[in-house]
Design goal:
Elements lengths: L1 H24 L5 H75 L1
Length: 106
Amino acid sequence: MAKEVKNKKESNRHFFKDFKAELKKVIWPTPKQVANNTTAVITIVLITAIIVFVLDLAFEKLNTHGIDRLKSIVSTDETNNIGNSISNEITNNTIVNNEVDTNIVQ
């Protein structure tokens, strides 16, 4: 058990030693590079947000206009159907009345 604890401590030391060595190899950006990159990211995010906002408004208007158009078409069709039904009923009633009048006259 003592060997396991000793090996564990050595592996931890080895890990942190390697970790420190790898961090020394990292090329860290200068403050100017960080500022430029941050500005670029924020600009791209804002442009993307504006594009999405404009597209959202456009699709909402198209959707609303499309729904209103469909409603007007449906209501026009319903009105025409009701008008045709009424015309057909009047025509049928007129024909029936004419037949009745013709039978009465004979």
